[in-house]
Amino acid sequence: MNDITRSKILGSGRYVPERILTNADLEKIVDTTDEWILERSGIRERHIVEPGTPLSHLAAEASRIAIQDAGLKSEDIDVIILATVTGDMKFPATACFIQRLIGADNAAAFDVSAACSGFLYALQLADSLIRTGTYRHALVVGGEILTSMVNWEDRNTCVLFGDGAGAVVLGPSTDEAGILSTFLGSDGTYSDLLYNPGCGCINPPTVENVSEKLHTLRMEGREVFRHAVVAMSRAMKEALKRADLAVKDLDLVISHQANLRIIEALGKRLSLTEAQTYVNVDRYGNTSAASIPIAFDEARRDGRIGPGSLVGLVTFGAGFTWAGGVIRL
Ligand code: COA
Question: Which residue(s) pair with 283 in the sheet?
Answer without folding.
Answer: none
